[in-house]
């Protein structure tokens, strides 16, 4: 069926009253010239024309059963941005039981994704229908609301598409396309906001954020993903209701924060969090970095420095086949959090200096604590904390002249995080002193050359003593136990200090250590 997009109403951008705001909403991009609505519609026409015929068949199946079906949310927004979305999210007038019956006939598999929320999923296998697999999620028209003391939304099913669209987070996500006719529905002027690059709620923002406080986090996330700015009324409402984010589960907050950090422009989303006060409740270590700068500028603006380090680290991520394929959550978290120990360790020294002694150690503990509270997985917590702890290790390399032993320890301590540590350390140089920046870059170039040379000679990534536990027990006539572990650590220390010893010298060193110990 050819795609013909019909716009039900001409989009306009009504003026909204401006609420109170703690700071002007400077966040996100403001297009120099609004994108042409006609150009957006042409983009959408091309994308919607490529919708799988299976989706149109599904629309016909719902229509024949006496129900409405509409493609909604992100896929529609992305179509106007010229992007093909892999997700096909639909909304319908059918009840979950009626939806399940239709999907059972249409698809090759179906499943209950959350019947209490009205969502049923299904898959049609491409191998049986001459194309790619098509996965859909179909949700009954609904409205969400939060009890003031509850962390879970209360779901009430609705009976109109406009009502369902009114409950969505932002107008750019409140557009729909009715199937199978491909009729465009835009009751809240989302297309105009899409053209202007604005995030605006379809209803009063205070009501919207009160119904689901997580939408405030989504404002920050979409600023990072789309480069859009939050409109003034929504910004003011977030400032007013920021504390309400605390009723949302840590897991849901974590998921939004993760999507924000993995977006194209995380800085924009993080600025939304900080400027609206949301970060005070979900990531308080970030706004705490805004240390006041004294009149002599004796230390950097740590907050802006951290955002710059994040930008630079993202630029150093690699393609899929590189050492650190982007977007990399661990690297981005470490770049953002590497200096969070500075506020707690700041000291004003005699003579007017400012110090942050051991801020990397303090910061590592703080990062682990915050990420645990946000329910990040153990591997991510440990990796980010370790990178935070190690990010200063390189300092002094150019002046001190590291021995090969020091280089080995650097590699061994970093372990599988070495490539991320390379990028974090390089990104941490944000000085505007060109000569200093060049000197630091050259010093790290030299360190990487030495690491590569030693790696080729000694298999640095898997440094082990020259004798293993079994050999140690045979030589010293020991049974498994603490003494074997101590002998292993002694040989490992020799290996780190002196490089490969060889079996004969390692045995001699082991016997000498054992005799001295006795």
Automatic annotation (TrEMBL):
InterPro entries reported in the protein's UniProt record: Bact_CCA-adding_enz_type3_sf (IPR050264), HD/PDEase_dom (IPR003607), HD_domain (IPR006674), HDIG_dom (IPR006675), NT_sf (IPR043519), PolA_pol_head_dom (IPR002646), PolyA_RNA-bd (IPR032828), tRNA_adenylyltransferase (IPR014065)
Domain HD: 302-443
Cofactor: Mg(2+)
Enzyme Commission numbers on file: 2.7.7.72
Keywords: Magnesium, Metal-binding, Nucleotide-binding, Nucleotidyltransferase, Transferase, tRNA processing
Gene3D superfamilies assigned: Beta Polymerase, domain 2, cca-adding enzyme, domain 2
Region ranges (Disordered): 1-30
Any one GO MF annotation of this record: CCA tRNA nucleotidyltransferase activity
Pfam family, one: HD
Residue stretches of biased makeup (Low complexity): 1-28
PANTHER family to which the protein is assigned, alphabetical: CCA TRNA NUCLEOTIDYLTRANSFERASE 1, MITOCHONDRIAL
Protein name listed in UniProt: CCA tRNA nucleotidyltransferase
């Amino acid at each position: 069926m050819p795609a013909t997009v019909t716009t039900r109403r001409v989009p306009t951008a009504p003026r909204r009253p401006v609420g109170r705001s703690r700071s002007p909403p400077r966040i996100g991009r403001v297009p120099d010239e609004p994108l042409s609505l006609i150009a957006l519609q042409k983009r959408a026409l091309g994308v919607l024309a490529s919708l799988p015929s299976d989706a149109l068949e599904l629309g016909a199946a719902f229509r024949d059963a006496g129900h409405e079906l509409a493609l909604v949310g992100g896929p529609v927004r992305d179509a106007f941005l010229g992007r093909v979305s892999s997700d096909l999210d639909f909304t319908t007038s059918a009840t979950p039981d009626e939806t399940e019956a239709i999907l059972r006939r249409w698809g090759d598999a179906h499943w209950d994704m959350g019947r209490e929320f009205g969502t049923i999923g299904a898959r049609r296998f491409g191998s049986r229908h001459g194309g790619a697999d098509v996965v859909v999620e179909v949700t009954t028209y609904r409205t969400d609301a939060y009890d003031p003391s509850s962390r879970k939304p209360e779901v009430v099913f609705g009976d109109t598409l406009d009502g369902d669209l009114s409950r969505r987070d932002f107008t750019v996500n409140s557009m729909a396309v009715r199937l199978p006719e491909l009729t465009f529905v835009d009751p809240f002027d989302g297309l105009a906001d899409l053209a202007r690059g604005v995030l605006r709620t379809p209803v009063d923002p205070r009501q919207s954020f009160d119904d689901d406080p997580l939408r405030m986090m989504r404002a920050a996330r979409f600023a990072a993903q789309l480069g859009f700015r939050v409109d003034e009324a929504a910004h003011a409402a977030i400032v007013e209701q920021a504390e309400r984010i605390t009723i949302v589960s840590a897991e849901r907050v974590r998921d939004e924060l993760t999507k924000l950090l993995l977006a194209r422009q995380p800085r924009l989303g993080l600025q939304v969090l900080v400027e609206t006060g949301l970060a005070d409740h979900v990531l308080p270590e970030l706004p705490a970095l805004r240390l006041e700068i004294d009149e002599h500028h004796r230390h950097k603006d740590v907050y802006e420095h951290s955002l710059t380090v994040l930008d630079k680290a993202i630029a150093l991520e690699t393609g899929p086949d590189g050492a650190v394929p982007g977007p990399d959550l661990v690297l981005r978290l470490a770049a953002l959090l590497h200096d969070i120990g500075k506020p707690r360790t700041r000291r004003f020294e005699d003579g007017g200096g400012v110090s942050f002694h051991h801020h990397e150690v303090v910061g590592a503990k703080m990062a682990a604590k915050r990420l645990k509270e946000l329910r990040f997985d153990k591997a991510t917590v440990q990796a980010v904390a370790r990178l935070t702890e190690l990010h200063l290790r390189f300092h002094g390399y150019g002046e001190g002249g590291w021995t090969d032993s020091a280089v080995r320890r650097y590699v061994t301590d970093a372990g599988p995080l070495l490539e991320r540590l390379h990028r974090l350390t390089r990104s941490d140089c944000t000085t505007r002193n060109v000569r200093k920046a060049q000197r630091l870059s050259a010093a790290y170039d030299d360190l990487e050359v030495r690491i590569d040379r030693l790696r080729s000679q000694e298999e640095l990534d898997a440094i082990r003593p020259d004798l293993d536990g079994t050999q140690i027990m045979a030589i010293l006539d020991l049974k498994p136990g603490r003494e074997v572990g101590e002998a292993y650590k002694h040989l490992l220390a020799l290996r780190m200090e002196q490089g490969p010893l060889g079996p004969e010298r390692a045995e001699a060193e082991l016997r000498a250590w054992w005799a001295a110990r006795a």
